[in-house]
């Protein structure tokens, strides 16, 4: 809860907004380690704010250890601005650090509810039909990196309890319920952190988040799970390898199937959503 | 330039921030078509702002046609809030609409520069070495949806001109230069729109964007292109199909290789970054 206990800039203010934008550019490498940032006047013009606002944003970045300011020589990005985001295979969603075991999950809510209309549509269930809804946060080394909302048809979810879900990966619970997971379709996009998600992920409201929706089906094509995942981009990113195959005009990209070591823990720990 | 010519809410203000968050929740389906939004007082508490600010954000959403407000019956999400985002295969990055031909590209800049340190590192080139840098915006039906920055080693880029790049897909130019594209590694994340990117994509500064980095190599492993792409999530999303294969403990996800029709135009039009 660092961001919440020690707010250096008021939520929703202009200085916080500029701070978030500059922090993003630094952690994503647009302004790499050692890079010289533009002067205060140029930043003020670029962001359409006053120099006072720029100075407050830079104060906060300096407090984070992301920049070094020296009189006369300008403002530079620090040599090692924070750690690299965890990389995860786009098929497993399991980041490296989770595979290594230093992770945990927090169950924020467990209920039987009517899902949002779009989720019901994607699940192919009738309007007004209830599903088991769970909200979890996943942490690596005590730091939250993902916010997961899962929806499971009521008859399948009847086979497990809130306590089960708090301790056992959902895929294991589905399989225990006789479900044979066969296929999935996933959509990757981006969104902004709403106040409740920001609190759970210990980031600022309005931060950019990577979003992923996965609709999981059994062999007969029935949706057995609907997952909405939100990830902090400073702590998590999706990776994939592509290879260029075919000849001449038929030449095209194909995904490289990941090495199996990434999958070994899938059925054995909490690393599965 | 709609957002810039008719700003309904000042950039950087609290009302604009709440507007962006609510708009995101509506276009992403968190608040689906016809859903009842919480009352002004509850929204004010949730976002930590005044009711006046909430009302101004709702005014802007109403102006966009995203919500309907009726005295006595509250605020509902409109029946058809905007269009669906284009979906694109994660390997080709070509959205459906681009395949259908109603697209174009705008070359914003073309120069020979030293790339950001992180790009140089990922390209495996020496510090201070120059590369050909191009910034392009891609449009579908006249609407910008992606902002592309590409870096190409100087000796390869020497084979094409600014005019070539404005009219011909980069992959065609690379192949014409004798390059044999063999493999790529891509990373998917999220970021916030900086002022210059927001202007190019005709969105608000601080909007959430889907970001993708792709490092493309030839058969000998040399980096021949570095691509940084930013996408408006309301207009573009990445999709992929997965299949669950293997038996028992070895059961795992594998990507499904896309149908070839998605690739047919890859070497024939501007749909390739």
TrEMBL record, chains A, B:
**What keywords does the record list, in alphabetical order?**
DNA-binding, Transcription, Transcription regulation
Domain (HTH gntR-type) spans 12-80
One Gene Ontology BP term is: negative regulation of DNA-templated transcription
Under the heading InterPro entries, the entry gives: Bact_HTH_transcr_reg (IPR050679), Chorismate_lyase_/UTRA_dom_sf (IPR028978), Tscrpt_reg_HTH_GntR (IPR000524), UTRA (IPR011663), WH-like_DNA-bd_sf (IPR036388), WH_DNA-bd_sf (IPR036390)
Origin, by domain of life?
A: Bacteria
Quote any Pfam family the record assigns. GntR
Matching entries from PROSITE patterns are given as: HTH_GNTR (PS50949)
**GO molecular function annotations of the record:** DNA binding; DNA-binding transcription factor activity
Q: Which residues form a coiled coil?
A: none
**Listed PANTHER family:** MANNOSYL-D-GLYCERATE TRANSPORT/METABOLISM SYSTEM REPRESSOR MNGR-RELATED, MANNOSYL-D-GLYCERATE TRANSPORT_METABOLISM SYSTEM REPRESSOR MNGR-RELATED
Q: What is this protein called?
A: GntR family transcriptional regulator
Q: Which organism is it from?
A: Roseivivax marinus
